[in-house]
Amino acid sequence: MYCPYCRHTDSRVVDSRLTDDGTAIRRRRQCAACGRRFSTAETTSLNVLKRSGVAEPFSRAKVINGVRKACQGRPVTDDDLAMLAQEVEEAVRSSGAAEINAREVGLAILAPLQRLDEVAYLRFASVYQDFESLKDFESAIAKLRAERDTRPVGHQRPLGAH
Ligand SMILES: [Zn+2]
């Protein structure tokens, strides 16, 4: 890390915080030679720990692949999926942890997917939450209905809008 003023390589971190979108850390540094201050943005790495114990870098593409199957035949566009993946990434990064369980990624998918498409949500939830019987589906559907009834009318997506 060079000082942008005098090219000195040694600097001290005086402040660091997560950027608003949660994908990077912004640091204020002070040059050890000339004393001037400058900012750097460093992308934070985020690893996902799989059930097998293998850790791999978080990837939006993997989130999309995981959800795409549940969205087959549904009115869900690639843009919808890209926005969902972004929302999931922001949610899992907001904790600030460098490593999370794959299960937490799945949990972070449920809420935005429910807003996107209820059928796709049910499909995804049935696999992810190990639905074992019709009863599990029934209670998930009952929950969806209850939430829909309490949702303010203004928040409902108009029919046919896409
Ligand atoms: Zn300097």
From TrEMBL:
PROSITE patterns: ATP_CONE (PS51161). It comes from the Bacteria. Residues 46-136 form the ATP-cone domain. One of its GO terms (molecular function) is zinc ion binding. The keyword Transmembrane does not apply. It holds the Pfam family ATP-cone. Its cofactor is Zn(2+). Belongs to the NrdR family. This is Transcriptional repressor NrdR. It comes from Paeniglutamicibacter gangotriensis Lz1y. The gene is nrdR.
